[in-house]
Amino acid sequence: MRLSPIRIGSVMGVPVYVTPSWLIVSAFITVSYAGDVQRQVASVSAAGSYLIALLYALALAASVLLHEMGHTVVSRALGLPVRRIVLFLLGGISEIIGEPVRPRDDFAIAAAGPAVSFLLAVACWAVSFAVPAQSGAAFLIQLLLWSNLIIAIFNVLPGLPLDGGRIVQAVFWQVGSSRIRGVRAAAWSGRGLAILLAVGTVLATSTAPRGLYSPTADIIATSAGFAISAFIFVGAGQTLAQAELLAAAQSVTLEPLIRSAVYVPVGTPVAEAVRRAQQQSARAIVILDGQQRCHAIVDEAALNTVSQHRRPWLSSDDIARELLPGHILSDSLAGQDLFDAVAAHPSSEYLIIGADGLSRGVLATIDLRQKVTR
Ligand SMILES: [Zn+2]
């Protein structure tokens, strides 16, 4: 079961969501830090220690949110809107709509998040001089200083899906003049980073002096190390797969995908329509209305379910999909525009027309999908 994120509000018009995993981590932080608060803060009550620990959990979420806002503000300033911000188990994500067209935009969007986290750490450091030592506020500020510093450093590690990976990607893009090459380099760097992190976790666990940390703390640190490695390794692969798909989509043209069609009048039996299609080596059947206009396209999947002995008695219209305005595409469509047009009006078949307005044939969505996934 996958629980969907919960919307908690919006900042600057961008909806903010938290996943249930984030709620669990926040509860865990509150419970596990309460003991530390009691040890380090003079004269704090038990309830007070939980309150301070809870404040830390909330301030940590606010820190992650501000990091994501950094990405969002720069992204929007560069003309790329943000669908939503999601806070989850290991941090946050800003879902940017579209891709930067220049390497330096990619770089700026990626660098903005860690820059905010670093500035927050500096701000905590400045404030720490103003609060009394051993107070709850001092404890909170210290924790936030280190948390933001760790967020900044962790995120600039040079591998996708981390911000540092996008920085590597932007640099390779600039140097190699191809975005996809940049993504490939940064994804492999991400996988390498994940392996190093896993090896580091094993080494740290096996070489740490026994009894230095409690067994529970040991298990938590080791699991966290492996979880982060897995997150980076899987994330790098996913980011790469997405980029490859996008690159493949961008290079698709309609011409080689057009199936030639046979045109039959309304009421033509399926058997007759198929016979004509075979005779003309056509791979699609278009139905014409009384005015000889293209009216519907026979659904290939539906046709395949009609048995041979029923075909002479069934009208082609009964297994055809009526052509709505969104199901007629220009033969000049290519790349992203083609995918956008198909996504806007999903169908299994589309009629393709030339600049003269005449039908050139049919695009089967299945052909388009195969073209990209191959
Ligand atoms: Zn970030």
Q: What keyword list fits this structure?
A:
374 residues, alpha/beta, 11 helices, 15% strand, binds zinc ion
Give a brief rundown of this model:
The chain is an alpha/beta fold.
Helical fraction equals 55-70%
β content, as a range?
A: 5-15%
Bound molecules: zinc ion
* Head-to-tail CA distance between termini: 30 Å
Number of DSSP-assigned strands? 11
Shape descriptor reads: elongated
Poorly predicted sequence stretches spanning 5 or more consecutive residues: none
Biggest sheet features: 4 strands, mixed
Rounded mean pLDDT score: 88
Q: What string, H for helix and E for strand, traces the elements in order?
A: EEHHEEHHHHHEHEEHEEHEEH
Number of separate helices = 11
- SS-based structural class? alpha/beta
Give an account of the 3D structure.
This protein has 374 residues and is an alpha/beta fold. The chain is built from eleven helices and eleven strands. The strands form three sheets. It has a four-stranded mixed sheet with strand order 1-2-3-4. Strands 5-6-7-8 form a four-stranded mixed sheet. A three-stranded mixed sheet has the order 9-10-11. Zinc ion binds at residues 67, 71, 113, 155, 163. The site of zinc ion has 5 residues, from α2.
Produce the secondary structure layout.
Layout: E1 6-11, E2 14-18, H1 20-40, H2 46-77, E3 82-88, E4 91-96, H3 103-128, H4 136-155, H5 163-176, H6 179-207, H7 215-250, E5 261-265, H8 270-279, E6 284-288, E7 294-298, H9 300-304, E8 320-322, E9 328-330, H10 335-344, E10 349-353, E11 359-364, H11 365-373
Parallel strand pairs: 2-3, 5-6, 9-10
Antiparallel strand pairs: 1-2, 3-4, 6-7, 7-8, 10-11
Bound molecules: zinc ion (ZN).
